[in-house]
Amino acid sequence: MSSSPLKKGTYPLDGIVDNLKSGCQERVSPLFQQAARRVRLFDRAGMESLRKELKLDPHVVRKWRNKLLKHFVTDAEASGGMPGADRVDLHSLELVRRFDSDIDGATKLLLRTAGGLMIEAVILRVASGRTSLCLSSQVGCAAACDFCATGKMGIARNLSPDEILDQLLIAGQLLAPEKRRIRNIVFMGMGEPFHNEANLFSTLDALLAPDIFHHPPSKILVSTVGVPAAMLRCAERFPLVNLALSLHSVCQDVREKLIPLARSYPLDQLRETVLEINAKTSAPLMIEYLLLAGYNDSLADARDLIRWLNGLRVHVNLIPYNAIAESPHLRGSDRATREYFASTLKAAGIKTTIRYSLGQDIAAACGQLVKNENRRRAIN
Fold it and tell me: How far apart are CA 41 and CA 196, in angstroms?
């Protein structure tokens, strides 16, 4: 049975792409070609066919799957004595390396697809004891946000549901020896989730399914730069899953500079979308607002934001900026400015929090780790 290595350290890489922007085809190693002939763990129809072929009791298969997906035991422990286990491909990703923060509870996982493309997922252990997992939905991103390292990479391809779900399985197995369980799942990693809508929805189905992960929908959050039609479809199909809008400015010109995709979706359309989502869901929609010195952090900016949010059921999350080399012209607001901005919103009756960034010593900017790893391996 194939399994993903769950140890610290670097592992040999075969077929790594030299540059994600080149759009070259993934090269699939013989190991994964062999695995493709087996049944994939998250292929319900394939698993059921295998069960019938081997005449296995459904309860046995259910118990085996629960060990993996709800208790996150090791591959060997879950599959020991399980008939047909050698025909099930448990992982579509390989854990290449883990980076643990020396200053807080963050762990970045560098993962490799079957064809050698690199992605990352991030485990966040907060002081309260809660553990969150930040998932990637694409290799690279087409949104090209000026403040995001992933956006500077371009787009290679969408991740499949198996590849997204395997990030959770691998992270859960790493956390199990710590007696920790993943409470919150956030789609805030590499990629724009709604540019991979079909695979995102299939992933959410699996996360919520009682016979797979059975994760509470209220503990899942999908973050987007703003794709209105897809946001509405998500709210209709998954009304209990939380949505977050990366807003960052209510001035159209400023927002377009930060998020080129904003040219396709004006602020008036986004506001109407939030209003419609409020009517379909019970939880407030999260507004993510990255505070950038001289761009969007003035008192006038705060007042404009208050007017834009008037009548909407939202929770504002103010985000410190993690600098990236590709955008030297951007600078994060200082602490005093962040706190004053937050107090102005709160005084207007808007629920507001200031996010505390974890993992700054391990390339906290989303996508930065993968870019650096690919560059280093290309040179070597």
Answer: 21
pLDDT digits (tens, 9 = 90+) for 138-157: 998 888 898 888 887 778 89
C-alpha to C-alpha distances, 345 to 278, 330, 353, nearest whole angstrom? 20, 23, 10
The number of CA neighbours under 13 Å toward the Cβ of 33 is: 5
Residue 378 has pLDDT above 60, yes or no: no
Q: Are the beta carbons of 208 and 132 closer than 8 angstroms?
A: no
Instruction: State which H helix or E strand residue 166 sits in.
Output: helix 161-175
Q: What dihedral angle (degrees, nearest 10) is formed by the CA atoms of 178, 166, 84, 47? A: 130
H/E stretch holding 347 reads: helix 335-347
Task: Name the nearest CA neighbour of 19 among 123, 152, 148.
Answer: 152
Count of CA atoms in the C-beta half-sphere (13 A) of 291: 25
The length of the chain is: 380
Backbone conformation region of residue 154, classed left if phi is above 0, alpha if psi is from -120 to 50, else beta: left
Assign 377 to helix, strand or coil.
helix
Query: Residue 112: helix, strand or coil by DSSP?
Result: strand
Model confidence band, residue 182 (pLDDT cutoffs 50, 70, 90): very high
- CB neighbour class for 250 (10 Å; exposed up to 12, middle 13-18, buried from 19): buried
CA distances from 143 to 59, 250, 265, 294, 367 (A): 45, 18, 12, 23, 13
Residue type present at position 254:
V
Structural domains present in the chain: 27-89 (no CATH), 94-379 (3.20.20.70)
Asked whether the beta carbons of 247 and 145 are under 8 A apart, the reply is no
- Distance (Å, rounded) from C-alpha 370 to C-alpha 380? 15
Residue 361 pLDDT: 66
CA distance 290 to 267: 16
* Residues with a known catalytic role: 120, 366
